[in-house]
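Can't paste images in this forum, so I'm doing it all in text. The chain is below; anyone willing to post the predicted structure tokens underneath?
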Amino acid sequence: MKKYISYVTTILLIIVVVFLYGFASERNSKKKMQQIDVVFENGENLFITYDMVNKLLIQSLENQENQSLESLLLNNLEKAVESNPMIQNAEVFYTLQGNLGAIITQKTPVLRVVNESESFYLDVFGKKMPLSGNYSSRVPIIADLDLNDVGEDLTMLANKIKNDPFLEKQIIGIKQKKGEIKQFELYTRVGGQTIVFGSMHNFEQKKSKLKAFYQDAIANNTLEKYDTINLSFNNQIVCSKK
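Text version of the structure:
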């Protein structure tokens, strides 16, 4: 008898679950989009606005405006949003309340390229990123750079400058010299020196030497006397005076 009751109870539970699932699905399928909730994952909406994202989504929804949320092709909506050159990634979803949501990851510029015919950013992956009319990012400038010359070393250097508070404030320009092994010169904000950085080999050691030099030069009020700071030699800094 107990087995029979247990069996019947199990069947009834399954029926209830199926009914509730079907009821929820039917109710959810009739929901229409009431609003779009946009969240920018990596900070404020600097390069692209909420309205721009909304417009991208609404344009993609024009042919589906009479359809329920469950029938929306979210992957297509994500691709439509990611077609914007300012956006690195988009996750589009809908909520139980009937709202369409989007989590947006903007691209992060680390370098600004200024050529004779155009100007643009390079993002953290070394990919071309257009300038924005909404916001101008304070990143180092590099002139006359062909996209074919954007390599791993330049991308790495720009990222390291971006991620170091001292370098981010101090370095305003980069020059990449031609050659099989890329050599770099850096241009400073305070003092106006040219830093002969050399290759990316021993980057951390060079950075430590540079910080030590600035601490000493600022403490002794001698920074303005120097024109060039050469870090390309092992275990030493060679400076030339103005």
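Confidence is low (pLDDT under 50) at residues 2-33. The CA atoms of residues 213 and 219 lie 10 Å apart.
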